[in-house]
Amino acid sequence: MILSKPSLHCRLEWRPSKYLQNTLLVLMILAVLSVGISALRWYLSIPLCLLLIYGTYRQIIKHSLSPPCSLFWRAGDSQISVNFAHSSESLTEPRCHQQGPLWIISAQDTSHQYRHFVFLPDTISSRERRLLRLVAATPITQKLE
Known about the structure:
Order of helices and strands: EHHEEEEEH
Structural class: alpha+beta
Oligomer: single chain
Strand content: 25-35%
Strand order of the largest sheet: 1-2-3-4-5-6
Helix content: 25-40%
Distance between the termini: 7 Å
């Protein structure tokens, strides 16, 4: 039996961030420029630049192909529901923290692996940030036996 649960809940739509993709692209360009103006011999700098370009391209493609999903977190609940286009899953032990402009939600799946959902400023509104802060700050309601 559960006493009374707060009716506060948060539904967030996660999608790949264009901001992150553009930032990775700019960082790649800066890295290639820094390798180009370094004192490395040409036979070392060319493969290194190609490796930088390839690695960044793979990360951008991997991020852009990540399926969007919907997260539902009820205040005081110890689970988050994650809904993909064709399936849904329940994650336990949710945690939320902020690092600068990033909001990170971490939770355990059924195989006890932690899954992380990173929300950048272009993927979460200020209203959703306030609501997420309230839901994450609500203590988990204990079940009575």
